[in-house]
Amino acid sequence: MFIGHYGPAVWDTQRGKETPLVTLWQGFLAVQFIDIIWAVLTIFGIEGPSVAADGTPVFHIPWSHSLLTSLILAGFAGLMFRFFKPSAGSRGFWVIAGLVFSHWILDLIVHRPDLPLYPGGSLMLGFGFWNFPIAAYVLEMGLVFSGFLFWQRVTSAKSKRYDYALWAFFIVMAALQAYVILIPGLALQAGNFDASVGPRGPALGVTTLIIFFGMASIISWIEKGRPSKFSPQNLG
Ligand SMILES: [Zn+2]
Question: Taking ligand 1, which is a single-atom ion, which protein residues have CB atoms under 5 Å away?
């Protein structure tokens, strides 16, 4: 999954009730933490795009995306968050760990079998929902749309432009999802997919990191203009 990961980023045990434990930009980085590790490993040629025995595009992701390492990364990210924000307590740990691990669950739905149980394991998991490009597109953008709709309801825009900005950002995300996942998926379905098109290796890893950190920066700007309706300073 790509953009769809941002849907669960709004989840927090406190959001919609009181001051959230995790800011949305932190949530944005948490849900992509496993892919951030993937991008770094791709820069060094340890992971990257690959081709399955039947010719379909998959990923070589033994370290970043095995079930075992994903659980370890979720725990590690949770501990890091607790270290930097002790006031979030054990709930903060579980929110961050849950957001990080949501990445693996959503990848399991869309990836063609390329998710191992542990690094080097030969059993590859993945339900392959990306083989239905239009339905998968609706699923990914639907997840983000629901997340944004919820977030819009539990925050109050300081001015109209923070409403426009949120939905303009959604449209940018929808375009990016179409370019990176939907169009190649449709080409694959039509039998004219060219695996040699697009960045690879260090260029792919760096582009991915720019997208992820760019997304987090944009949402952190929108977030400044959309405080929680349930934070003490906004109540009353
Ligand atoms: Zn992933």
Answer: 35, 107
